[in-house]
């Protein structure tokens, strides 16, 4: 313990007596606070300057009327926005507004279309149309600005909705008021008619059911007949087109059959000739394996070249004939199997041509060597023989496949297809005759249905009042008698329409209670930037100060670890004091609820952070510095310092509980907004657990890894790139 203290005192003396060291350490102590203060001051209240965010407003609304009440929602929006300074509203034409948002001069442009009020007025119609405000935003201009302008657009929509609801409610309650007055005037007639309604009610349901059922059946029958009459000409046309198409197909297959009879023997003859040529080439290449004179070899090789060229030409002709055959097949697609087989056969002919070309090349090469007096190599003659053998096998396979599968399949499919076409034409002819009979039947049925429907309509016209009103009025009167008094309804309808409309436009008011109020955005970001600057300060310390003393003789690894840790902790504590005191006393616009606890929590964070960072660097040397930076990167993204943890990707949500920043930021937030001691205790305990784990890591691993880390550091230093 004494050596640890001696090492710590020695470090402090070195800083105090060496003015260069004192200046450098002083800079290290001050730099983190500048990082925090600048960022906090820059984010004091960015939303207070939203009036500088330009948003174009284009009003093309022409106005409308609701029950005689004229209104123009677009003008009301513009009038309200001229007194609204939340955003920098610019009232321009559509062309200018769209140009400015495209070029980034405006963050967004809101267009109120010409039929905006007109669609709002459809609220009194059976099928109202929803009014639309077009919102154009430039997302690439800035990541945050579109969210602010979008909120502005939502505010406009809510404002229009509130104003429109107030107008509509006022109109509707005016109508209700007029209805109440009219109802009061007609009350004697209603009482007189009430008796008649109840007398008719017992008989009306059955009469109405029968009448409606009859009308419905007649109309449905007429609809079906009309639909059938309209459909028959199209069916007739389709059937006639089908017959014509089948006739055309029969002519095609007659021609195709004749063409097939011509092509089939030609293809067979070409394939047999190709077979003979490849067998001859193979026989010659076998002969070349024997001991022959140079003159004999050149003669045989010349023959091979000629035969290979002739075979390639014959394969090409057969391939052309197959392609003609295949085109006839694909034109009408009557046999996909035959077409596919021909494509496969054509591909194999391509392989035969490839082998023949290669044999021709090898023969030419051997001929040139022989002509130069060189002894032919065995591998060259062997390759030539193998190419010839492969060509023979391929030709045999093509010949067998064509004679045994493709030619018989083509003949079979053509016969089947021709028979199918003949059967189909016979069926379509029968359908055509049936359509003619159905046309005559529908003409007579349509005339009879029309007469029956006219008679049912006459019967329905005799009971218009009973059919449309009796049941509704009777049910209404029964319910009215049970639930309320008609005089109460009249009084309710005659209430003040304006007062009712204004109430329904805003029936609920939201009252917000802020439990831990902060005056500005910068106060909310203070914990994050303060914690971040403390960690950055630790990184600066381990980057510029050595974790190992230059004179380490007489000290154990653990003594060096704890002695130098005290030095780093002292510097980190001073950094934390400067940052937190500056937050409290220098940043006048920043609110901190408990300044004393804010400073103490900062010191606790600095202790935990320096233990973690120092241990990583002390134990793992330069690798530890990289680990500390990686840990910083993950903590910035995953600790919830800027966005709530619930909004960040799932990976960062999963690692959030295992990051020191998570609890350090929460701890500082308690001091800034107002302390809940249960949360403080939880955060402090978890923070100290990180420090304990780091201390155990340094105590247990410092000495075993020291030799390896020194060796690794020495090798890195030899590169001339690392200090």
UniProtKB/TrEMBL annotation:
GO cellular component, as recorded: membrane
Annotated protein name in UniProt: YhgE/Pip N-terminal domain-containing protein/YhgE/Pip C-terminal domain-containing protein
Cellular compartment(s): Membrane
Annotated transmembrane regions: 527-545, 566-591, 597-619, 626-645, 684-701
Pfam families, per database record: ABC2_membrane_3
Coiled-coil intervals: 211-238, 342-434
Domain ABC-2 type transporter transmembrane: from-to ranges: 29-698
Keywords for this protein: Coiled coil, Membrane, Transmembrane, Transmembrane helix
Membrane topology summary: Multi-pass membrane protein
A GO molecular function held by the record: ABC-type transporter activity
């Amino acid at each position: 313990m004494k050596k640890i203290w001696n090492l710590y005192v020695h470090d402090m003396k070195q800083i105090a007596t060496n003015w260069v060291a004192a200046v450098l350490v002083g800079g290290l102590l001050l730099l983190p606070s500048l990082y925090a203060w600048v960022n906090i001051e820059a984010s004091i209240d960015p939303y207070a300057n939203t009036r500088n965010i330009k948003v174009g407003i284009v009003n093309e609304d022409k106005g409308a009327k609701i029950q005689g009440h004229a209104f123009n929602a677009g003008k009301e929006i513009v009038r309200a926005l001229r007194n609204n300074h939340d955003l920098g509203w610019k009232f321009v034409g559509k062309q200018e507004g769209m140009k400015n948002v495209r070029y980034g001069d405006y963050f967004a442009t809101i267009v109120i279309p010409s039929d905006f009020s007109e669609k709002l007025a459809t609220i009194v119609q059976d099928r109202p149309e929803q009014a639309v405000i077009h919102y154009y935003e430039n997302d690439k201009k800035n990541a945050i600005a579109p969210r602010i302008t979008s909120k502005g657009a939502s505010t406009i929509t809510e404002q229009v909705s509130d104003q429109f609801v107030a107008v509509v409610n006022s109109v509707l309650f005016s109508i209700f008021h007029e209805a109440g007055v009219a109802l009061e005037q007609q009350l004697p007639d209603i009482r007189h008619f009430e008796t008649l309604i109840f007398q008719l009610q017992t008989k009306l349901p059955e009469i109405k059911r029968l009448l409606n059922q009859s009308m419905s059946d007649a109309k449905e029958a007429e609809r079906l007949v009309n639909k059938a009459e309209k459909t028959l000409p199209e069916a007739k046309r389709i059937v006639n087109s089908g017959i014509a198409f089948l006739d055309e197909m029969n002519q095609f297959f007659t021609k195709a059959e004749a063409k097939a009879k011509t092509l089939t023997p030609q293809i067979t003859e070409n394939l047999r000739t190709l077979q003979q040529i490849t067998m001859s080439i193979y026989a010659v290449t076998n002969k070349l394996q024997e001991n022959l004179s140079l003159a004999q070899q050149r003669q045989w090789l010349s023959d091979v070249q000629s035969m290979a060229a002739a075979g390639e030409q014959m394969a090409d002709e057969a391939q052309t004939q197959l392609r003609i055959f295949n085109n006839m097949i694909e034109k009408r697609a009557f046999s996909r199997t035959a077409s596919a087989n021909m494509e496969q056969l054509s591909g194999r002919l391509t392989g035969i041509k490839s082998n023949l070309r290669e044999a021709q090349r090898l023969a030419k090469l051997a001929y040139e060597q022989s002509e130069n007096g060189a002894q032919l190599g065995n591998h060259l003659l062997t390759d030539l023989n193998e190419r010839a053998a492969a060509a023979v096998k391929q030709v045999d396979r093509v010949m067998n496949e064509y004679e045994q599968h493709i030619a018989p399949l083509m003949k079979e499919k053509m016969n089947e297809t021709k028979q199918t076409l003949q059967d189909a034409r016979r069926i379509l002819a029968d359908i055509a005759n049936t359509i003619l009979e159905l046309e005559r039947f529908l003409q007579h049925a349509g005339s009879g249905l029309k007469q029956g429907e006219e008679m049912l309509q006459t019967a329905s016209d005799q009971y218009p009042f009973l059919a449309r009103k009796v049941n509704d009025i009777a049910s209404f009167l029964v319910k009215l008698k049970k639930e309320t008094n008609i005089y109460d309804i009249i009084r309710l309808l005659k209430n003040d329409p304006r007062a009712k409309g204004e109430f329904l436009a805003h029936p609920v008011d939201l009252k917000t209670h802020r439990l831990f109020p902060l005056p500005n955005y910068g106060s909310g970001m203070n914990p994050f930037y303060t914690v971040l600057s403390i960690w950055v300060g630790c990184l600066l310390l381990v980057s510029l100060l050595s974790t190992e003393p230059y004179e380490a003789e007489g000290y154990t690894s653990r003594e060096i670890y704890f002695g130098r840790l005290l030095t780093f902790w002292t510097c980190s504590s001073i950094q934390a004091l400067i940052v937190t005191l500056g937050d409290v006393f220098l940043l006048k616009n920043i609110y901190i609820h408990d300044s004393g606890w804010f400073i103490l929590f900062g010191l606790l964070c600095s202790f935990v952070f320096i233990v973690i960072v120092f241990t990583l660097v002390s134990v793992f040397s330069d690798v530890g510095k990289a680990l500390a930076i990686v840990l910083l990167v993950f903590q910035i993204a995953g600790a919830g310092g800027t966005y709530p943890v619930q909004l960040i990707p799932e990976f960062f949500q999963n690692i959030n509980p295992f990051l020191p920043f998570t609890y350090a930021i929460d701890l500082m937030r308690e001091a800034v907004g107002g302390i809940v001691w249960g949360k403080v205790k939880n955060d402090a305990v978890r923070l100290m657990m990180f420090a304990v784990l780091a201390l155990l890591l340094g105590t247990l691993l410092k000495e075993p890894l020291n030799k390896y880390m020194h060796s690794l550091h020495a090798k890195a230093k030899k590169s001339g790139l690392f200090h």
